[in-house]
Amino acid sequence: MAFCSKCGAQLEGNERFCRGCGHDLSAAGAAASAPGAAAASFAAPAAAQPVAPYPQFYPAPGQIPIVTMPQEVPKHHGWIWGVIIVAGILYGLYYIGSHDQQNQPQGQNPTQQPGTAPQPAGAPPGGPNATVVQQQVFSSQWRLTNGDVEIYNARWQNRSNVNLQSAKVECGQYDQNGTVLSTQHATLDGPNQPGATATYNNSPLDMGSAVQGLTTVNCGIVDVTPAQ
After folding, report:
1. Distance between CA atoms of residues 222 and 123, nearest Å
2. Which helix (H) or strand (E) covers residue 98, if one does?
3. Pairwise CA distance, residues 160 & 132, whole Å
4. pTM of the model
5. Running DSSP on this structure, what letter comes out for residue 105?
C-alpha cells in the first residue's frame, strides 16, 4: 500500500499525481517514503499529563471544625430596678418632709360643744362668764414640733349673744390610759362677734414642751373676756 509523501493520502500505487494534494508521484521512492511520512504525520500524541487529584471537600478525620452557636444574651430587667430606685427616692423625700420638724405624733381634738365643760378642765367653769363659756365651740389639730406641743387649724365659734374680745384655751396632755399629764394655756384674740367663727390656721399655738408618755392632746375654752 502506497501513500503520498506530501499529504499522506492513500494511493493505489499507479497514480502519477496525488488525488489529495496533486503532488507529483513519479519521483522514485515515493511509495517507500510514504509510510514514513505518514508515520511522521500521524505521530502518536504525547502522553497526557496526569490530572492533579481534586482537593478533598471534607477535612480529614479528626479535623472537623466545631460550629458553636452564639450564647443567648440574658435579658436584663433594668427597668424593674429603675422603678425600685425611683420609689425609694420618693419614699425618702416623703419621709424627710413628714418628719423634718418632728411633727409626730399628731391628732385632732374633739370639738367642744356648747353646754359642756372644756375637756381638759374636767369641771364646768365658774364665775360670771360661765354661761358664755359653755356656748363656745373650739376645734383644732395638734402635733409635735421640735419637742413642743403645737395647736394648729384652730376654729373658735361664738354661739352666745355676747361680743367677745378674747378667749382662754386650755390644752391637756394625756397618756394612753387617759390620765392628764400636763395642762397649758393660750389666748385667742378677738373680737369675735355673736354667731361668728374665728380661724387660726396660720398662727399655730405653742402649748409648751411635750411630756413623756404623751399620746393625745385635748383642748377647750375655759374662759372668755367680753368686749368693752
Report:
1. 10
2. helix 78-99
3. 6
4. 0.49
5. S
C-alpha torsion 206→211→214→219, nearest 10: -40
Q: What is the pLDDT of residues 25-41, one digit of tens each?
A: 776 444 444 444 444 44
**Domains of the chain (ranges, CATH numbers):** 2-41 (no CATH), 106-226 (2.60.40)
How far apart CA 202 and CA 131 sit, in angstroms, is: 30
User: What does the alpha-carbon distance between residue 227 and residue 209 come to, in Å, rounded to a whole number?
Assistant: 32
Q: Can you read off the three cell numbers belonging to residue 198?
A: 374665728
Which region, left, alpha or beta, applies to residue 88 given φ > 0 means left and ψ of -120 to 50 means alpha? alpha
Question: What would the pLDDT profile of 127-174 be if each residue is shown by its tens digit?
Answer: 778 999 999 999 999 999 999 999 999 999 999 999 999 999 999 999
What DSSP string describes 116-132? Answer: S--TTT-S---STTHHH
Q: How many CB atoms lie within 10 A of CB 72?
A: 6
Residue 138 near residue 155, CB atoms below 8 Å: yes
3-class DSSP state of 170: strand
**Residues 169, 219 contacting (CB under 8 angstroms):** yes
Placement of cell 404623751 in the chain: 214
